[in-house]
Specification:
The complex is a heterodimer of chains A (185) and B (263).
Chain A (H helix, E strand, L loop, with lengths): L1 H6 L2 H9 L3 H22 L3 H17 L10 H20 L24 H11 L2 H12 L4 H8 L3 H21 L7
Chain B lengths: L5 H10 L10 H45 L14 H4 L1 H15 L7 H8 L10 H9 L6 H14 L3 H12 L3 H16 L6 H8 L2 H16 L17 H11 L11
Classes of the chains: A mainly alpha (185), B mainly alpha (263).
Keywords (chain B): Membrane, Transmembrane, Transmembrane helix
GO molecular function (chain A): DNA binding; sigma factor activity
Keywords (chain A): Sigma factor, Transcription, Transcription regulation
């Protein structure tokens, strides 16, 4: 299996996954699960829920792998599926956007972190954002969607999307400058 | 999306390619949920394969039945399984093995003319007149096809033609077509048997040599990949049983009457 992994490219894995080759699916999972979980975790607060979303996402990926035309990046295609699954999960849980979420902003519960843990620290900062802020910020800043797309995806106004983003930025800025090592302007 | 916000960039730089390791058992949790789909897809293939096989099996079975039952003129003869007959009448045993030998033990290289020379005077090791009667006397009723075959081979060997015998064994083993050719006459002979031919008929069967040679030639043709020659009644010395045999042989061959180089 390890030998196989060394030799098989993602394209080969995809082709085998089209035939529902279980080993290939496992290999694809092993290759991308951690990256995709990092996506889910940005949207869904708890790791347990994020793992649930991750499983649903992979099942969808395996079932719909024929929909992947091969034109763009496969990882990008997977990422979009994971983002959609995360949004579905959030939608299922509760109403995404409440305009005044200021009071949801929790006190930071973490001690200042070492710089080598920057990624984890930043993830935690995002996790602590209110769900609406977090979602728009993720979609805009990290996934790269525009406000128009975000508004359609979340079925909100573009204006709402913009305001959520600016609030998210503001609060993240505060947190980041609190812990200066996280941010070098 | 236009302006680049430093906060956005900062987070994107660190988080875009971040990795968070999932629980070790997550795949094993997910795998059962994948099984359904896989089984469904595999089941689809199996279903198609099974139905194709079924159609093929049923059609070949029907064709077989047609060959055995429908293809024959009804002479008041009923077709029976080969296994059933030997137990019913002793005569059946006599007739059957002899025909079997004729069809099955084909000399590979011999031309028909050669065979005819050898065989005519009923001195051929494979077709002695006395053999069937001997068998009757011994009352061997349950000889299987295999026994018949080995018997024939033994007689051949005793005639000193060892190399040829080996050659025939090899040919026996290779083509399956030959086996089929032998089968139907075999069944027909059995049908004829209930007609109660006794020793007198056994004598007439010695004249079947010609028919046997014809069968051998056709068998050779099959083995060597040549086309079959149609039998013609003038050139083949038919035994009494031939009333039942001829429609079968004609069934196996095209209508064109190529005379066989017999006798």
């Amino acid at each position: 299996m390890k030998l196989f992994r060394l030799n098989s490219t993602t394209d080969q894995l995809i082709e085998r996954c089209r035939d529902y080759d279980r080993k290939a699916q496992h290999e694809l999972y092993d290759r991308f699960a951690s990256t995709m979980l990092a996506v889910c975790v940005r949207y869904v607060k708890s790791v347990e829920e994020a793992e649930e979303v991750l499983m649903n996402g992979f099942i969808k990926i395996f079932n719909k792998i024929d929909d992947f035309s091969g034109d763009g990046s496969f990882e990008g295609w997977m990422r979009r599926i994971m983002v959609n699954e995360s949004l579905n999960h959030l939608r299922y849980r509760k109403n995404l956007f409440v305009e005044s979420e200021e009071e949801d902003w929790p006190e930071p519960n973490h001690a200042p972190m070492e710089s080598k843990e920057t990624t984890a620290a930043l993830l935690q900062l995002i996790e602590e954002l209110p769900v609406g802020y977090r979602t728009v910020f993720n979609l805009f800043a990290i996934e790269g969607y525009g406000h128009k797309e975000i508004a359609e995806m979340l079925e909100i106004d573009e204006k709402t999307s913009r305001s959520q983003l600016s609030r998210a930025r503001k609060q993240l800025q505060e947190r980041v400058t609190e812990a200066k090592y996280l941010y070098k302007p | 999306m236009s302006e680049k916000n430093p906060i956005d960039e900062h987070f994107k730089t660190h988080l875009a390619n971040a990795k968070v390791e999932p629980s070790a058992d997550l795949w094993s949790k997910m795998e059962p949920r994948l099984d359904d789909h896989k089984a469904g897809r595999r089941g689809w293939f199996i279903g198609v394969a099974a139905s194709i096989t079924l159609v093929f099996a049923v059609s070949s079975w029907l064709y077989d039945n047609y060959q055995n039952d429908g293809g024959l003129p009804d002479n008041g003869i009923t077709i029976e399984k080969p296994e059933d007959n030997p137990n019913t009448t002793p005569d059946a045993v006599i007739d059957t093995p002899q025909f079997e030998d004729l069809q099955e033990e084909t000399p590979g290289v011999n031309s028909i003319a050669d065979d005819a020379d050898k065989v005519q005077p009923s001195s051929s090791p494979r077709r002695e007149t006395s053999r069937p009667t001997e068998r009757i006397a011994q009352g061997r009723q349950n000889e299987s096809q295999e026994e018949n075959r080995t018997l024939a081979m033994n007689t051949e060997t005793s005639s000193g033609d060892v190399v040829e015998n080996l050659d025939r064994q090899a040919q026996d083993a290779s083509p399956k077509i030959g086996v089929e050719v032998k089968i139907d006459p075999y069944r027909y002979l059995k049908k004829a048997e209930p007609a109660q031919e006794d020793l007198a008929q056994a004598d007439t069967e010695t004249e079947k040599v010609a028919l046997g040679d014809y069968a051998e030639q056709q068998f050779d043709n099959l083995i060597q990949g040549k086309s079959l020659e149609a039998p013609s009644k003038e050139n083949i010395r038919w035994p009494e049983v031939s009333i039942n045999l001829s429609p079968i042989i004609q069934k196996f061959t095209p209508d064109t009457d190529n005379s066989t180089t017999e006798q």
